[in-house]
Amino acid sequence: GMAIRNKIPVVSLENFYEALFGRVSPEYAGNPSWALEHVLPKCQGLYPRIKRVLNLLIAGAAVAALAPLWALVYAAIKLVDGVPPIYGQRRVGMLGKEFMLWKFRTMAVNAEAAGPFASGREHAARVTRLGGWLRRFRLDELPQLWNVFKGEMSLVGPRPEWVKEVEVLEKVVPSYHLRHLVAPGITGWAQVYYRATSNPKDSIEKHHYDLYYLKYFSFALDCAILLKTLKRIFIKDSLLPVTNSLRPRFYGLTGRKLADLSSVIVRN
Fold this sequence. Notes:
- This protein has helices at 2-5, 13-21, 26-29, 32-43, 47-65, 67-80, 120-125, 131-136, 144-150, 163-172, 189-193, 200-216, 219-232, 258-267, and strands at 86-92, 98-104, 154-156, 185-187.
- The protein is globular.
- By secondary structure, it is mostly helical.
- The chain is built from 14 helices and four strands.
- The model is unreliable at 243-268 (pLDDT under 50).
- Helix 4 (32-43) crosses helix 12 (200-216) and helix 5 crosses helix 9 (144-150).
């Protein structure tokens, strides 16, 4: 009451955490009522329908404008690496519907045999000669503009995961299916703020960023993500700061005062 009378802003623990870290706290990430309150209204609004039209127009124009670059990358992979240049993988899309995601090939033909969470060393050993360079500047993602044009993906949204990864993660993350309430994206909030994932722990952490996007997604946020993606292209994953999570013993923070939470964050 005193804060309101003195016009002092009052911030909930949840919003304070989200503003500071850019992700949803683990406590709310597993709360079904949180999803009903914050995620479903966003998914059923007007903007998702407008976004689909914008994606169609932008993707169509980009496919036409970048056709010479596509041809150049295609020929380079064929000549230098001698492997089929286009690679397709089954991913999980909106409402859990599977689709074939297309990329320029950056890994050996049998790379999938290592499974969904191969170690970083195993992963690096299978990258082709051109693969590292293509990944460095995200050129391997160009064919996904065709997925966007077909309506299977969006320019911005939670990254669609490999079917085999989803099978693992849905067993350990109760809210993982929420990411399927919107169209998956070529880039997203998690991609500009978190490194590429190679193990279940990182994927769960990244999911908290995707939930933040689901809670706040809008035209302004999508534009911000696209601009940050352009900047992100020139930053190596190894140079990206690793965001530390609150440790598991701090997950149940609903009863703590704001000052207590601040001290926890400072120490961690």
